[in-house]
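Bug: token stream looks shifted between consecutive jobs. Job 1:
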Amino acid sequence: MKKIILSLLAFLCISTFATLRAQGVSETVDGKVKLLMERFVDNNKSKSTVTGWRIQIMATTDRQRMEAALRRFENLYPSIPADWLHAKPYYKVRAGAFATKRDALRTLYILKQDYPGAYPVQDSQIRPEELLR
């Protein structure tokens, strides 16, 4: 049903645009808007990280406990990359890198068997090549 509605909406948009184009209606972009769009594009090209989601396995103040948890996770799930970060006073073990929360929740469902306290967290320091499919 959604596909039919989206197809109909796309058809209406295309036909409306074609009609306006045939009638000689054109669009002009203000110089300030064009400059703003160029800045937006340049700013995004210069960023080396994106915002996405990870799954936080644990947070502790004990570094040895964090390292043990990280080794255990890597043994249980070798296909899911995991790392830790230190946000004083906590050491946090985080796994995966997902573009959307929905993707993270799919993996979280599996991880909950071994890590019932795990939860998704947003992370703005994800390199695009890290994103899991």
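Job 2, same session, no restart:
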Amino acid sequence: MFGEGKLHELKQQCLDVKARLVIYDGDLSPSQQQKLESYLDLAVIDRPALILDIFARHAKSREAKTQVELAQLQYILPRLAGHWTHLERQESAIGSRGPGETQLETDRRLVRKKIADLKKSLKKIDSDRNVQRKRRSSKINFCLIGYTNAGKSSLFNRLTGDKTLVANRLFATLDSTTRRVPLKGKSEFLLTDTVGFIRKLPHNLVASFRSTLKEANTADMLIHVVDFSAHDIEHRIDVVNEVLAEIKAGDLKRLLVFNKIDVAENLDMRRYLMAKYKGCRFVSAKTGEGLDTVIEALADACADMYTDLEARVSQKDSRAIALISKMMQITHSDCVDGDMVFRGDILKYDIPKLEHEGIKIEFISSIP
């Protein structure tokens, strides 16, 4: 990793600036970290540890704290040996450790037990989230995703009128939030704000936040928010696409929204991105500029998810009539030969629910 000369240079730099901590922009194995700390006589952490620490500082809800603690313990477990070398002695205590069990073995056992407990807690949280998703299943759900600090929460607040925390810092949002957004007419959709992504996101963190990231996995469409003022726009897009592929959301339909156009006015870059990413939008969540184009794109996406149909059911079937009234945006109803005939719009993925009840369906203008 480092040659002797580079290590000596690094140590001298630490002495010159009176460093108290060294951060390595990459992954360190437990042995590499231990050797660096020994040579530099300083605390050394790697990129995953730094990201985990940032997450820990911003975690507020029980779910976020549980997810972060699990990721931290999974990160720490293989590194315990380096932290407990001074306790590598055989000890025994009645009722606490088995004969000859070392302090290190005890700590590993306790950490593994804590990890198992946290996984159970997250499994319960995931189950509760699934119940919430089922309740929202009859609504169109759009999900905001993107690189951290791209302005997702600011755009979320603009579209929903909400007051979700907005801060110019990494991972200000760790919990997913869902709000209802009305459109003109009877249409509406649900909008979900999610945790941001970053380059080399620690694997343990992705695994721990899987229940939160599942919000993106189950969305009807993803709104990929990109910081237009960033110097590495396309790299950040690629990073997000890689994470989406990892959580099996890579094939979902998405709308690309370039945010913070009030910060950068690079017309050449704007023309380039418009040519490369057809249908993308440019917006300033801070000033509201371009917001109408985003709303228009979302309204069009909603319209594409509906189809016109005619549903026919017996007048006596009150259950089926109630279901139709709940799911369809009825434009016309009539009584024909003892049957009720309804015409209107319905979400395409709700059609199987009507068919399951034995309701006769005829498509008017389109086929789902």
